[in-house]
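Write out structure tokens for dTTP/UTP pyrophosphatase.
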Amino acid sequence: MRLILGSGSPRRKELLAQIGVVADDIRPPDIDETPLKSELPRPYCARMAREKVQAVPADAGDVVLCADTTVALGRRIMGKPANAGEAAEFLLAMSGRRHKVITAVAVRRGDCVWERDVVTDVKMKRLSDEELNAYLATNDWQGKAGGYGIQGPAGALIPWISGSFTAVVGLPLAETAGLLQAAGYPLWRQG
């Protein structure tokens, strides 16, 4: 049984390695990630994971794992910023406030799909101009939902979370392990 990771994210690959899972192949799907008109963050995130897992080419016996991480400030989806200006806009909007990080995971084997989503509450400290500019200068915001990654320099900006740390990084490990086991993928096997 082969495991195909439908993600180019090095963070997801590293998180899987924490539970002893190494993908046999990595095939990031190419889908349109544009939110639908007035789509709310949690349904959007679940739809993205579902569409990604269906878009990855695989044999019937292969297990395909995809995920999507969405940062939500109220009803607003904070995607991956296009540039430093948009990253600054996102970070200033979240400065001193709580927001939600939703990570949806989808696992497919043949025609069966197993799904879970995990919502974590995150508080960002009130950012000074100096902190904001120093963080933007790291370029760590690039390619990250909401313009930050908690596992990098932005960890210093997040004093509090309630929920799954690994979900905020990009893959909730407890839930992912359960989905892989549901699909018949053997975890904790001897090498």
